[in-house]
Amino acid sequence: MDKRRRVLTRLYMDKATLVWNGNAVSGHEALADFFEMLPSSEFQVTLFDCQPVHEQATLNQTTILVVTCGVVKFDGSKQRYFNQNFLLTAQTTNNNTVWKIASDCFRFQDWPSNLTCHLPCTCGSFVPTHTSSIFACRKEEQEAYRLIRHLQRPTHTDTMKIR
Q: Is the pLDDT of residue 47 over 70?
């Protein structure tokens, strides 16, 4: 597909949106420009899952959620893990059904040791994202463990004050 990227837009609805690592691209023209500017790449999908989306959530439009993950290598860059989720919607015209992408979300999945940026914590401090804990900072971690210990007590009450 690297040599025919412009045809990728045929897979998308006219007003579809691609969110690439937090950056939104909408419409066929913008999608075509975006695909053309990406460096040459090799994708390996390691697993995927498909689930129907309830018609109440999609205004009675037949839709499937597709979740994929794998590794990608762009020219000049190291191999990276990725996660991609998209909604496929059935488009029916003249008794012919074609599935189109309505929404597409692509994210690199860096392991914590590769990250160098700092994120704001709920306590107001900034912490590196490469912390080994699932909690943003030590204060948040201590608060969570305090709550867990409280709930594990045989006589706990639901009136515990949460700081």
A: yes
Q: Which amino acid is at 5?
A: R
Compute the distance between CA of residue 26 and CA of residue 16 in angstroms, rounded to an integer: 6
Exposure letters 19-38 (e unless 16+ CB within 10 A, then b): eeeeeebebbeebbebbeee
Which phi and psi angles does 24 have, rounded to 5°? -85, 140
pLDDT tens per residue across span 73-101: 999 889 999 999 999 999 888 889 999 99
pLDDT per residue over 118-146, tens digit each? Answer: 444 455 544 444 444 444 455 655 565 56
The tokens of 79 are what?
């191999």
Q: Which residue has the tokens 């594990």?
A: 152
Closest by CA position to 72, among listed 101, 49, 104, 106: 106
Whole-structure pTM value:
0.64
Region at 151 (left for phi over 0; alpha for psi -120 to 50; beta for the rest): alpha
DSSP string, 99-160: EEEEEEEEEE---GGG---EEE-TTS-EEETT-SSSSSSHHHHHHHHHHHHHHHSTT--TTP
Torsion of CA 17, 22, 23, 25, to 10 degrees: -10
